[in-house]
UniProtKB/TrEMBL annotation:
Its EC number is 3.1.6.1. It comes from Rubripirellula lacrimiformis. GO terms for molecular function: arylsulfatase activity. The gene is atsA_40. Residues 1-27 form the signal peptide. Residues 31-385 form the Sulfatase N-terminal domain. PANTHER family: ARYLSULFATASE FAMILY MEMBER, ENDO-4-O-SULFATASE. This is Arylsulfatase. Belongs to the sulfatase family. InterPro entries: Alkaline_phosphatase_core_sf, Sulfatase, Sulfatase_N. Gene3D superfamilies: 3.30.1120.10, Alkaline Phosphatase, subunit A. It is an enzyme of class 3 (hydrolase).
Length: 486
C-alpha cells in the first residue's frame, strides 16, 4: 500500500482505534441485540423533535445513543421493507419486491376461511433459500425471538420458527384489528407454528410487550439473544368497518394524554366501498395515531427497564426505526410525501442506535447515508458470527460509521415500487412518481421542492445511468420467488 505519509499516519490511527474498540467490545462479552421496528411512523414523530407527540422511551434512547437522520429503508411499504432488513438484500434481489396481501378487502370483500386459505396472502411468502438474521446469529450461540408483525408468509414452512427464530408470537400478514387480531374477519395470530385466538380482545401492543418481557425474563443475562419486536403500531387498523379502518385503534388511557377531540366521526360519500360511510375525522385520526405511538413507547420503556435491571442494557445493541414512511396521522415533515411513495417521506425514516459498550456515542446526531440493508452484516460483526457463504449482501458493517470513525461507504441507494422509482447517488436524488418526476439536491433541498432536471441535465443523466446499472444487476441476480418468473 503506497500511501503518502500523512494519509498513512491517519490510516494507522483509524486502524488502531477500530482494533482497540473491537477488543473492548469482545472483553465485555457478545452483545445482546434488541431490534424494534414500528409500522408507518412519521419521520418527525419523536417527542424530542418538538411536535407534541409523547415518546419518553424513544427520547431516552436518542439521548443515550445516536440518532440517524439520513437513514433509509429499501421499500416504501411493509412486506419488502421487512424482508430486506432481515436478509440484508434489496427487495429485487431477495424476491420480495411487492406486498404479500389480498386486494379484495380494499373493496369490502370478506373472505370465508376456505376462500382465504388459497389466496396469495395465505400461500405467498419469502423464498426459503433466503437466510435471515437469527439464522446467521444462531451458530454464535444466540437465542432469538420475534413478537409482533411477521408479514413474510403464513404457511408453516414460511413462519419465523422455520427460518431461524427460536420463538414466535404475533400475526403473519400486513395488518390486523388491534383487539380481535383479525384481518378483515380472518384470525391471524400465531404462536410458533399454530394459529391461536387465546388472547382475542386484548390490545395487541400489550401482547407483544408481554411476550418480549417473557423472552427477556428467560434469556436476559443468561445467554446472548436477538429479540426482534416488530410492532404494528401505528399502522391503521385492518377492519371492514370504515370507522375502525379509517384510524388507528389505541387504548383510552393513552388517548387521554392528548387534547380532547370534539368531533370524532363524520359521514362521507367518498369511501372505497359502502358509501355513505362513517369515518374518523382527521383530528381523531391524529389523536389516535399519537396514542398508539405512545402506547408502543411505553412497551419499549418496559423492555429497557428490564435490561437495565439485569445490568446488561449497555452491552445490548438497541436499534429502533420505522418500516417505512408515515401515513394517516403521521408527521413526515420536513420531508415530501408519505408511505407507498418514493419521495423522501416514504423511504427516509427515524432511526436510533444505542450501544455504549460498543462505543456508540450518546446524544449524537449522525447524518451519514445508512440503510436497513446494513443490519445483518453489522449484527453479525458485533456478534462474531460468520456471514452466509455465497450470498450477495447489499449492506455492510456500519459500526465504524456509527461510531464516527469513518464516513459511510454507501454512496448510492435505489428504490423501485412498480412504476415508482427513486435513485440516490451522493447528494443527488431522482424521483419518478408516475408523471411526476424530478431531480433534487438533498444537501440543500431535503423537502424535494426544487426540480433541477432542466438546469442540471448532466447530473440527471448520471443518476439515471446509475439506476439503469443497478436495475440490470438486480435482473441478473439469481432469481427468487414469489413474484419473479423463473
Amino acid at each position: 500500500m503506497n500511501l503518502p505519509c500523512r494519509f498513512l499516519t491517519s490510516y494507522l490511527l483509524i486502524t488502531a482505534t477500530v482494533i482497540a474498540t473491537v477488543a473492548e467490545v469482545r472483553a465485555a462479552g457478545p452483545p445482546n441485540i434488541l431490534l424494534i421496528v414500528s409500522d408507518d411512523q412519521g419521520y418527525n414523530d419523536l417527542g424530542l423533535l418538538g411536535n407534541g407527540i409523547i415518546t419518553p422511551a424513544l427520547d431516552r434512547l436518542a439521548n443515550q445513543g445516536t440518532r440517524l437522520t439520513n437513514f433509509y429503508v429499501s421499500w416504501p411499504a411493509c412486506t419488502p421493507s421487512r424482508a430486506s432488513l432481515l436478509t440484508g438484500r434489496y427487495p429485487q434481489r431477495n424476491g420480495i419486491y411487492d406486498m404479500i396481501r389480498n386486494e379484495a378487502p380494499d373493496y369490502g370483500h370478506r373472505y370465508t376461511p376456505d376462500e382465504y386459505a388459497v389466496t396469495f396472502e395465505r400461500i405467498g411468502g419469502m423464498d426459503d433459500r433466503e437466510i435471515i438474521i437469527p439464522a446467521v446469529l444462531k451458530p454464535a450461540g444466540y437465542k432469538s425471538g420475534i413478537y409482533g408483525k411477521w408479514d413474510l408468509g403464513a404457511l408453516r414452512r414460511m413462519l419465523p420458527t422455520s427460518r431461524g427464530f427460536d420463538d414466535f408470537y404475533g400475526f403473519v400478514n400486513t395488518g390486523i384489528d388491534y383487539f380481535t387480531h383479525q384481518r378483515y374477519g380472518v384470525d391471524c395470530m400465531f404462536r410458533g407454528l399454530s394459529p391461536t385466538a387465546a388472547d382475542k380482545g386484548t390490545y395487541c401492543t400489550y401482547l407483544f410487550q408481554r411476550e418480549a418481557l417473557r423472552f427477556l425474563d428467560e434469556h436476559a443475562g443468561r445467554e446472548p439473544f436477538f429479540l426482534y419486536v416488530p410492532f404494528n403500531a401505528p399502522h391503521n387498523s385492518s377492519s371492514l368497518d370504515p370507522e375502525i379502518r379509517s384510524s388507528v385503534q389505541a387504548p383510552d388511557e393513552f388517548k387521554t394524554l392528548y387534547p380532547a377531540v370534539d368531533v370524532q366521526t363524520k359521514v362521507t360519500d367518498k369511501y372505497r366501498y359502502g358509501t355513505p360511510a362513517t369515518v374518523a375525522t382527521s383530528q381523531a385520526r391524529r389523536r389516535d395515531y399519537r396514542a398508539a405511538v405512545t402506547c408502543m413507547d411505553a412497551a419499549i420503556g418496559e423492555m429497557l427497564d428490564v435490561l437495565e435491571q439485569r445490568q446488561i442494557l449497555d452491552n445490548t445493541i438497541v436499534v429502533f426505526f420505522s418500516d417505512n414512511g408515515g401515513s394517516g396521522g403521521a408527521d413526515n415533515s420536513p420531508l415530501r410525501g408519505h408511505k407507498a411513495q418514493t419521495w423522501e417521506g416514504g423511504i427516509r425514516v427515524p432511526c436510533i442506535v444505542r450501544w455504549p459498550a460498543g462505543d456508540v456515542t450518546a446524544g449524537v446526531v449522525n447524518d451519514e447515508l445508512l440503510t436497513s440493508l446494513e443490519l445483518l452484516p453489522s449484527f453479525a460483526s458485533a456478534a462474531g458470527a460468520e456471514l452466509p457463504a455465497d450470498v450477495v449482501l447489499d449492506g455492510f458493517d456500519w459500526w465504524p460509521t456509527i461510531r464516527g470513525q469513518t464516513p459511510s461507504p454507501r454512496k448510492e441507494m435505489f428504490w423501485k415500487r412498480r412504476d415508482q422509482i427513486g435513485a440516490r447517488v451522493g447528494r443527488w436524488k431522482w424521483v419518478k412518481m408516475g408523471n411526476d418526476t424530478g431531480l433534487y439536491d438533498l444537501s440543500t433541498d431535503i423537502a424535494e421542492k426544487n426540480d433541477l432536471s432542466e438546469s442540471r441535465p448532466e447530473i440527471l443523466a448520471m443518476v439515471q445511468d446509475r439506476y439503469a446499472h443497478w436495475l440490470a444487476e438486480m435482473d441478473a441476480a439469481e432469481p427468487r420467488g414469489p413474484f419473479r418468473d423463473f
